[in-house]
Design brief:
The chain has about 240 residues and is an alpha/beta fold. The protein is built from ten helices and eight strands. The chain has one domain: Alpha-Beta Barrel (TIM Barrel), CATH 3.20.20.70. The protein has helices at about 5-10, 25-35, 50-55, 75-85, 100-105, 105-125, 140-150, 170-180, 195-200, 215-225, and strands at about 10-15, 40-45, 60-65, 90-95, 125-130, 155-160, 185-190, 210. Strands 1-2-3-4-5-6-7-8 form an eight-stranded parallel beta barrel, surrounded by six helices. Strand 5 (about 125-130), helix 7 (about 140-150) and strand 6 (about 155-160) form a beta-alpha-beta unit. It is globular, with a radius of gyration of 17 Å.
């Protein structure tokens, strides 16, 4: 194996974003992420403060979404969401671009919209993942977004919300990695449900994956590496991507 358990666990943003996720499922999902030592928990915004409190003494980061899932919030609203998320303890913010403006070719607006959230986050020492929602875009849109995100020093470019008509397509990940600056990482989201897919996107240079199947993925990883199962994680896995 050319990877360790920590390598794979450190790629997973455990997703707790479905609108029907109960408080009990949010709580157990956070506990699961801590037991499995995922990179982060990406949680419904209203529960971020509680999530950050629970994760405070762990290596797992608290994260949430901005302008989710449609990206059509005003820039001022996205800025306000970002500021509130940071105040609530968010360490990483996953923002959705204004898809309508991307498809309309209003690149000045798109740039300003992304820059506003990155500015708020970076001023506070936080990180931003910019979600494209590739299923609605042509390659020319994806390439331009990669260029803009590179110029603005986004921390990640990300394929999808998980609420569109498609997810983390291999060809999109290859295109995003090829057209993003070296300092911009790539996150795959949508359809990441097993270790095989994680390893496949990792080979392309992907450093994060949004997943609700965290337990399935990391249990299989431990089997492959001949590690003992994590008995502490006997909690239900709430849905997300």
């Amino acid at each position: 194996m050319d990877y360790t358990y920590e390598d794979i666990a450190g790629m997973i943003d455990h997703s707790l974003l479905q609108p029907y996720t109960t408080v009990e499922q949010l709580e157990s999902g956070i506990q699961l992420a801590m037991a499995y030592q995922s990179a982060s928990v990406c949680i419904l915004p209203y529960y971020l403060r509680r999530c950050a409190d629970l994760l405070a003494d762990s290596s797992v980061r608290a994260s949430t979404v901005i302008g989710f899932p449609h990206g059509a919030h005003t820039t001022a609203m996205k800025e306000a969401e970002a500021a509130r998320a940071i105040a609530d303890g968010g360490e990483e913010l996953d923002m959705v671009v204004n898809i309508s403006k991307v498809l309309s070719g209003d690149w000045d607006y798109v740039r300003q919209d992304i820059a506003a959230v990155i500015g708020v986050a970076h001023d506070a020492g936080r990180k931003v993942k910019v979600i494209f929602e590739n299923c609605y875009l042509e390659d020319q849109h994806k390439i331009r977004l990669c260029e803009i995100c590179s110029e603005l020093n986004a921390d990640w470019v990300k394929t999808s919300t998980g609420y569109g008509t498609g997810g983390a397509a291999i060809e999109d990940l290859e295109l995003m990695r090829a057209n993003s600056a070296a300092h911009v990482q790539v996150k795959a989201a949508g359809g990441i449900r097993d270790l095989e897919k994680v390893l496949k996107v990792r080979a392309l240079g992907v450093t994060r994956c949004g997943a609700s199947a965290t337990k399935v993925i990391l249990d299989e990883c431990r089997v492959q590496l001949n590690l003992s199962p994590i008995e502490a994680a006997d909690v239900p896995d709430a849905g997300g991507y």
